[in-house]
Amino acid sequence: MKRIIRLLIIIMTLVSCGKNDDVYFSISQEEISFDVSGEEHTVSITTDGDWSCKYNADWILVREQQNKIRIIADRNPNAESRTTIIQVLCNGDIRSTITVHQAGVLLEIDETNIEVASIGGIQSVTFHSNTLDYTVECAEKWMDIKKGNNAININVERNYSMEDRMGKISITQGAVVKTLYVTQRACQWFDSFQMVNVDGGTFLIGAQKDDSSQKEYDKDAYPIESPVHSVTLADYSIGIFEVTQAQWMAAMGYNPSIHQGDNLPVENVSWSQIQEFINLLNQKSGLNYRLPTEAEWEYAAKGGIKSQNNKFSGYSVLAACGWYYSNSESSTHEVGKKYPNELGIYDMSGNVREWCNDWFGYYTTDKANNPQGPNNGNMKINRGGSWSTPAINCRNSYRHTDFPNETSHDLGFRLALSR
Q1: For 54-60, which contacts have Cβ atoms below 8 Å and span 24 or more sequence positions?
Q2: Which pLDDT score, from 0 to 100, does residue 132 have?
Q3: pTM of this prediction?
Q4: What is the pLDDT of residue 11?
């Protein structure tokens, strides 16, 4: 009996095999390759049997459609290539396999560390990639990045700091991240002055409190701010910041300031000492720096041709743009920490008073063209108020005087430059 059962099993198996062997089966490809981006490949299948596919990889999707197999691959985010196998079954038996390969991310940078001179400029960094689908991130405001096909162009701003600075750029493709480090060299002290170009124009200088219906009315105006009169100025440049103690120290070799700190405005300097500083600066830079005239100072403080006619430099509320006795805590503060005015200039109201080039002279009603002040006198003009003065003395039109050899813990300066 056992022999009969064994014989029947053998006969059934042979019949079954014979039936599957009689089924026609053919596929067009047994190996396919995707690039890193993925997308889709189609494999044709010809058979008169019932077919299906089995696979385990989660990065492909297989669609069975009549006489074709659609294989859809995800983007490969990794540097490593990957491979998987799709089993193709017919009438329940594995009749063939499809091997699926996908390339990994290729992202190589020719340089990972670059050095840039203090003057800045455009740096081009070449990289090699098998896709253009990459992102670039840079947190540094002094670098502007433009993407290209096989390179990134880095526009580096001029470094006005007397210290090196470093930034990093991240290039990301999928899960692959490459980092590029950029070091920009410090500038020399005589190249450290950030200037803004001021377009010339005509404006009303001074203030008056006699007639509220007339221009430049200010109830807080002092008599020496009158009469209001018209002034026309040519183009010039003026310092975005007050001259700092670090800049003075680098040039002169000593720090006269009462409140000390590298990025605090230099103070306790006389008009005469400033001339020594400027002479040295011009020798080193080859330029023609100077103190601003009183008219240039007021025009810049008011915002030049962009003026919004504010009482203080850029704002009608002093606390927004200046350090004065109510908010200074009896000290100077680092330059550029308040809001700038319409021209992007900082601290023209408050922090320290600022020397001007002019001798003091009373205003007249005459129109003036690039006024330089009197040819001689006893007192030099300074402007802007300071950390120790009330708001009334930080107005754009406020005038103050000191002897040229006087110093004060609230008296500094900013530079001007003829264009």
Answers
A1: 54/86, 54/87, 54/89, 55/84, 55/85, 55/86, 55/87, 56/84, 57/82, 57/84, 57/100, 59/84, 59/102, 60/84, 60/86, 60/100
A2: 79
A3: 0.80
A4: 42
